[in-house]
Amino acid sequence: MITYTLVCPKDHEFSQTFDNFDDCQAQLAAEAIKCPSCGSTNLVKGLSAPNIGGQSLAPTPQCPAAAGCGNGGCALKQ
Ligand SMILES: [Zn+2]
Questions:
Q1: Which of 61, 47, 57 has the alpha carbon at shortest distance from 2?
Q2: Distance of CA 8 from the midpoint of ligand 1 (Å)
Q3: pTM over cut 0.70
Q4: Ligand 1 centroid from CA 54, angstroms
Q5: What's the farthest any 2 CA atoms get from each other in the chain?
Q6: 1-42 residue pLDDT tens
Q7: Separation between Cα atoms, residue 3 and residue 19, nearest integer Å
Q8: pLDDT (tens digit, 9 = 90+) per residue, 51-68?
Q9: How many Å lie between the centroid of ligand 1 and the Cα of residue 42?
Q10: Which among 7, 18, 26, 75 has the fewest CB atoms less than 10 Å away?
Q11: Domain ranges for the chain
Q12: Which residues surround ligand 1, an ion (CB under 5 A)?
């Protein structure tokens, strides 16, 4: 199980528990989740660190030189 913070377009934040990352993505794509405050289904994952319960997931890729990355092919380049 994994808990993500979800944010709606009106900046309502709430936590939702999913089986895994794919489940989260699938439910967001299917608009299966509603904001409890306004009912919006246009939700995105918030910036809060996910609360991972007993499941080790692959770490998010991090550019080793994120602050000053000179690699034009770097996927993390802003
Ligand atoms: Zn809302």
A1: 57
A2: 5
A3: no
A4: 30
A5: 43
A6: 999 999 999 999 999 999 999 999 999 999 999 999 999 999
A7: 9
A8: 555 555 556 666 666 556
A9: 9
A10: 75
A11: 2-54
A12: 8, 10, 12, 35, 37-38, 40
